[in-house]
């Protein structure tokens, strides 16, 4: 009889002994009995003692068989599709524990990816209504024209949303819902477009030195139904017109305006007012005396103003400044359905951070 056949018989006998051991377990006598105060831990369903004469390979094979049987019994208690059942059987038939851990971690990541895709799909289906878009533009133009706005390229989008919620504007998604991401994107896009239009209208007056600051401010407030052309607004418009002559790129412009305001505030509110007044007077020498204009200054936001405007005016001084452009560029979708209105030509303007070509000093700027 060959050595190979003897070895085969020996392995077959060991396998039979292992099977009998599974059917008739031999519990080991514990050397230390558990105390009454400490309940004995539940034994593992796979913690079977095998005779010491069995080889490690036979024991491992027996335990794999036991794991497979246990898995098949557990599988009958749940309802899975065919693919999931196949993956589960692959898992319980994998002998190496490290390999099973890798498989389990991989499936966890797969589940996370599926959940993220589901959330993104849900977010992408939310869309601002035409009425809500018109309301956004109303708040945005009012913000751009308020003389107490802290900055123009900071947390303006969040402030607009906060003001709309404070004013009980309908059609807004619930706070902290996943649809809020779509709302933020819509407000950010609209703010970029309308702010671009604001700058464009100021820049277009540079070649013609005859457009005084009073006439320009009156043209700007025509875009907001309840904001008046105050002296403070004229100061701000004069500053913006001055910075339009410095050749900043479109992406740089509004952060540069904020930087200028930040530096002017460094010495206190008195320095800011005095500096803006000087800029206003210099603008009058270049573009014409506003006192000679037919347009007069109006009252600021007060008790007679609508509540939504008072809410906005109370929030804009607290806008936080960004030291540099943060986030990615925002572009309006090509298929975005804009409602028809008198300001349609303005809403079609491009956002003010899409073009990096420098503007000629003193020339017009196309945003």
From TrEMBL:
<feature type="region of interest" description="Disordered">
    <location>
        <begin position="283"/>
        <end position="367"/>
    </location>
</feature>
<feature type="compositionally biased region" description="Low complexity">
    <location>
        <begin position="30"/>
        <end position="45"/>
    </location>
</feature>
<feature type="region of interest" description="Disordered">
    <location>
        <begin position="1"/>
        <end position="47"/>
    </location>
</feature>
<feature type="compositionally biased region" description="Basic residues">
    <location>
        <begin position="321"/>
        <end position="332"/>
    </location>
</feature>
<feature type="compositionally biased region" description="Polar residues">
    <location>
        <begin position="304"/>
        <end position="314"/>
    </location>
</feature>
<feature type="compositionally biased region" description="Basic and acidic residues">
    <location>
        <begin position="14"/>
        <end position="23"/>
    </location>
</feature>
<protein>
    <submittedName>
        <fullName>Uncharacterized protein</fullName>
    </submittedName>
</protein>
């Amino acid at each position: 009889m060959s050595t190979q056949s003897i070895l085969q018989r020996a392995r077959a006998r060991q396998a039979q002994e292992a099977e009998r051991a599974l059917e008739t377990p031999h519990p080991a006598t514990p050397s230390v009995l558990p105390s009454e105060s400490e309940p004995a831990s539940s034994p593992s369903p796979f913690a079977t003692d095998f005779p010491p004469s069995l080889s490690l390979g036979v024991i491992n094979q027996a335990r794999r068989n036991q794991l497979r049987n246990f898995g098949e019994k557990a599988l009958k208690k749940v309802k899975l599709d065919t693919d999931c059942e196949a993956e589960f059987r692959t898992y319980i038939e994998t002998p190496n524990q490290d390999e099973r851990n890798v498989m389990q971690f991989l499936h966890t990541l797969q589940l996370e990816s599926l959940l993220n895709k589901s959330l993104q799909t849900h977010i992408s289906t939310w869309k601002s209504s035409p009425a809500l878009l018109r309301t956004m533009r109303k708040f945005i133009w009012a913000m751009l024209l308020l003389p107490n706005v802290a900055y123009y390229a900071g947390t303006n989008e969040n402030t607009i949303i906060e003001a709309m919620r404070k004013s009980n504007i309908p059609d807004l998604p619930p706070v902290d819902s996943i649809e809020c991401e779509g709302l933020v994107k819509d407000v950010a896009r609209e703010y970029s477009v309308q702010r671009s239009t604001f700058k464009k209208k100021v820049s277009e007056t540079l070649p013609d030195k005859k457009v005084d600051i009073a006439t320009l401010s009156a043209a700007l407030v025509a875009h907001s139904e309840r904001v008046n052309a105050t002296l403070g607004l004229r100061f701000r418009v004069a500053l913006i017109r001055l910075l339009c002559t410095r050749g900043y790129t479109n992406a740089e412009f509004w952060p540069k305006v904020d930087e200028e305001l930040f530096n002017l505030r460094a010495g206190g509110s008195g320095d800011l007012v005095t500096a803006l007044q000087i800029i206003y007077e210099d603008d009058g020498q270049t573009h014409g005396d506003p006192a000679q204009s037919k347009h007069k200054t109006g009252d600021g936001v007060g008790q007679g103003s609508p509540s939504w405007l008072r809410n906005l005016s109370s929030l804009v001084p607290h806008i936080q400044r960004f030291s540099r452009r943060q986030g990615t560029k925002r572009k309006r979708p090509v298929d975005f359905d804009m409602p028809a209105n008198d300001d349609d030509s303005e809403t079609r303007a491009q956002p003010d951070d899409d073009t990096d070509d420098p503007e000629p000093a003193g020339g017009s700027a196309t945003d």
